[in-house]
Amino acid sequence: MVLLSAQRWVRSRLTDRFWRVQEVLKYARHFRGRKNRCYKLAVRNVRRAFVKATKARREKKRSLRALWITRIEAASLEHGLKYSPFISNLHKSQVELNRKMIADLAIYEPKTFKSLAALAQRRRQEGILAALGDGKEPEGIFSRIVQHY
Amino acid sequence: VAKTSLTSPPWPEVKLPDPVEEAKYHAEVVQKVNNMVAMGQYGRLFAVVHFASKQWKITSEDLIMMDNVMEAECGDRIQMEKVLLVGADNFTLIGRPLLGKELVRVEATVIEKTESWPKINMRFWKRHNYQRKRIIMNPQTVLRINSIEIFPCLS
């Protein structure tokens, strides 16, 4: 609206207040109580809802990862392995499935998950045997039993 | 000599099977799976594919939505190359970390390129008269997985 003199400016009134109010109330329609009808209460609660949604979008990634880890732990315990050796041995066997996929496989493809658990178990045994070594004393080191010649 | 609590180590003794026999058993299993794949004795195949920096578990006739743009027009056929796992009812092929392109072929078609629903980013500090509101609409692409094929070239 182009109003070219001061007297005209003073006489202009807000005409789309209804739509400005509806823009806010449309996000509050599913709230409980008077805050889904009354603008003053709705404004505060819609603002809180937006801020909470923003923060929750960052938290969602963390909570979903914790959920997947819980599910993988439960599924691997059914096959006799805990979560930490399962994941570490899968990683050492160069299998790069992420936790979301392993959790989905544990739910929908039980046979595949069983084979993954067997792979992790076998890699764990090989790792333990490699760490134990031959069972002989290392050379050039004094043992507790001193041989007198 | 009498057995005490320290004769054997506290961890359970682990014995690996004989390597020669194990190699024979492995070769047999690989032969069997190769024959099954060659005869076509598998039902529906599923694959785990690394695509758009995410991993997806897909079958044929599946819809996938990625949260970014794709530099391909609608209706283009695309082959997904980073396949991590392929499975059927009786066998699974686990890639270390990826399976070869001669083994698996995953084809998809770009169906739709849209924007997401308007997401609202709001920041608010109370008692400081500070609030910022920003509406974000990410571009999205919808793909349909046409088929997953495997070829009998195991060894």
Automatic annotation (TrEMBL), chain A:
One Pfam family of this chain: Ribosomal_L20
One BP term from GO: translation
Keywords assigned by UniProt, alphabetized: Ribonucleoprotein, Ribosomal protein
GO molecular function, one term: rRNA binding
GO cellular component: ribonucleoprotein complex; ribosome
NCBIfam families: rplT_bact
Family from the record: Belongs to the bacterial ribosomal protein bL20 family.
HAMAP family assigned to the protein according to its UniProt record, in alphabetical order: Ribosomal_bL20 (MF_00382)
Protein name: Large ribosomal subunit protein bL20m
Source organism per UniProt: Zapornia atra (Henderson crake)
From TrEMBL, chain B:
SUPFAM superfamilies: L21p-like (SSF141091)
One GO cellular component term noted in the UniProt record for this chain: mitochondrial large ribosomal subunit
InterPro entries per record: bL21-like (IPR028909), bL21-like_sf (IPR036164)
One function term, GO molecular function aspect: structural constituent of ribosome
Similarity comment: Belongs to the bacterial ribosomal protein bL21 family.
Protein name: Large ribosomal subunit protein bL21m
